[in-house]
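P.,

For your records, the input lines for the assembly:
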Amino acid sequence: MTATREINRIVMAAGLAASLVLGATVAFAGDVTLTMAVPDWPPTRIMKKFFDEQYKPKSGNTVKLQVDFIPWPDFYTRVNASLTSGEKKYNFIVSDSQWLGAFVEGGYFRKINDLLNADPEFMKTFKDIHPNALNSYSTYPHKSENYYGFPQFPDVLVNFARKDIICHEAEQKNFMAKFNQKLPCTSEELDAMTWDDFKNVGEFFRRKKGEMLAGKPAEDDFYGIAFQAGKSYDFSSMQINGFIWQMGGDIWDETQAPTSKAEGVVNSPAAVKALEKYLSLIAYMPPLAKTGTMDIFKSDELFRQGKVAMSVNWIGLAEASLDPKTSRVSDSLVFGMMPGTKGADGKLVRWSNIGGQPFVLTTWTTDAQIKEAVEFVKWWLSSNIQHQFAAAGGQSAIKSVYSDPKYVTYRPWNRAWAPSLDWQKDVWHVPQFFELLTQQQDQYDLAITGRQDAKTTQDNIAKFQQRLLKEVGLIK
Amino acid sequence: MQLMSTIQSAKTAPALLELSAGNWRLAVLVGLVVSALAVVALPASGSFWVVGAMSALVAAAFAVNAYRRRYYGGLLVAPAIAVLFVMNIFPLLWSLGLSFFAYQSNLQSIRFVGLNNYIKVLTDEVAAPANWNALINTAMFAVCTVSVQMIVGFLLAMLFAKQFPLRKYLLILVLTPMMLSVVASGVFFTYYYDPTFGILSYVINSLAGGQFIVMDSKAGAVAGIVFADAWMWSPFVMLLVLAGLVSVPRYLYEAAAIDRVSAWRRFWSITFPYIRGLLMLALLFRTIEAFKLADLVIVLTKGGNDTMTISYHLIRIANEQNKTSEGAAISYIILFIVIVLTNLYLYVANPKNREA
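Structure tokens returned:
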């Protein structure tokens, strides 16, 4: 073999290899993968299912949605570790709204104003989101015009109740005899409940095993009410905030930084009274509440096991209560809005801490991925998909969707959805969120487990917040 | 002759400032100065790579020096030492360095603060009370869990040192908890203690008639955690003590029996010397583990009812709140306490060395 022939062979081989590589590149040029971190629960599972079954990108590209389903208890830790370690794994993250400050300031979450401004159709959908959900899920600084997130699954607290117990004739009669008022039984009657009414239900339905309950001897100890009173994550804060806002108190207002104060606000007489009210109801809940571990999953489990007459919990957990495979009470459910507090005008004040999550884009997402991500979000927020999502057990914060008369027919709790949205606020979005939250949760745990009174608790929280927020410049 | 002189000249270490590929002293000096400057002047990501490059420079100088001076044995173990350095020593030094900076991992902001983190975690009006409380709780857990485990483990070892029917099967049963994951055991105990579903509350309710909630007070919560921890780790103490017990020569007991020595005297003069070292080892291991107690607390109480331990508190500070450098300072304080305790134990355990 001559040197010339050898060179020719090498050139031909190189050409062949180059054309194969080029061909492959061309063939896969339209492939876009979006990697998403999500909590593992029905609302995100449904989203993935819809995507796999229905999503067809308008661009004609092949778009893959690669989803990491992370269990709820590990979710923040995993996402936080991924972001702060710099691995840049995720393009999309289903983030709790409170994380916005920490991760926007860290440079991880992408501002989306440019994407909205460039796409009138997208902007139109975005502006159709209920303002309370939009403020909570999208804005940082809170209630500013800087947008970061889109609602993935919006959530509110509702009252789950058992018709077989609360509508029973004997129970109705005895309740009337004891409290001189009707025991709430229908959805409308549940909507009209105050926390005092809720307390009465708690007091009335404390039954020992063997005592009569709805015409039969109780199979086990039974309790009237339950709500979240857990130390971990944000469980007690999410419920206590509602009491504080409803009774005229407030939390530190981040939108007024640096002029607003924590001391004098967080421990105002109204806030202390609200915490006292919250604590007074613990006595009527299942005994687990006294251990400070009554998280949303425990109260849900107790309700589905038939141990409680009424339970305030997130809609996101409600689906399992309808399923006879996972619920002993699936055939006797009625839902209403979370109890409220009567205002001076006699009307119910219903402020509550919003739940649910937005999804956000990360700053390292490429232009090609952003283009596909925007298309995906538009598809997700489109009327048809939002209706399907609501019909499958999700919720929609899009006004035109939840205002449709069909919406309330999807699930028994949907009738409480739209009226509740008007009463949603959110906890702080500042980067110090977790520090504020863990200290507050520690303090609430001391109060819930009976080792500290409400005044000392609110004083300690206020003092800590004042000092910390002053240190970081959010309080003058 | 020429070769010999080359070897001899190579064996002479170069002066500190002599520029040579094998001058590891100069490499260490340059490495330290450049690393310190980089850490102070550059952003975290930049200083990371500069410190890495300096470490590589020192390692290369060591390798060349070793090659020139015919330290082939050292060169052969160098890869293992390099792995140890990368996996253990470097992160340890890095975290020690971080404890002198104000670094928040989510904001990627860093500035030198000297000993401020140590002062803050121990004395600051806002941060210190939670740290001290967690430290005191940890000391309490260490005393309670280790005492219970040592006593139960010792008694179990005394029991299993004897032969009795079904001993082999019971031994397997007793050892099983130690092999389970802490989370699995923790979840098991949450249901065991649960006041609504739990068997413990159910049995006590049935017998006493009143409502029984194990974890509704600090004493109950601590007892619940100590019991669960002892259930898992008493078998570990038992195994170590049992190893000592079975190694005692039988003829010593036979001789003692002939001399009609009392049971207590037999134990103190024959058995105890054989198991003393192993008991100290068990005590040391379990104490160190007690200082790391977090997983069981997370599963059972989430630190509620004033059961927050320093390790769990550290997880919250470093991982959840992203205050990495404050977390590093707390870690080194724990390390210091554990080292002091270890030395104290070793001092007590080795009276002969002390006399010498």
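Two observations worth noting. The two ends of chain B are 50 Å apart (CA to CA). The CA atoms of residues 117 and 326 of chain B lie 6 Å apart.

Regards
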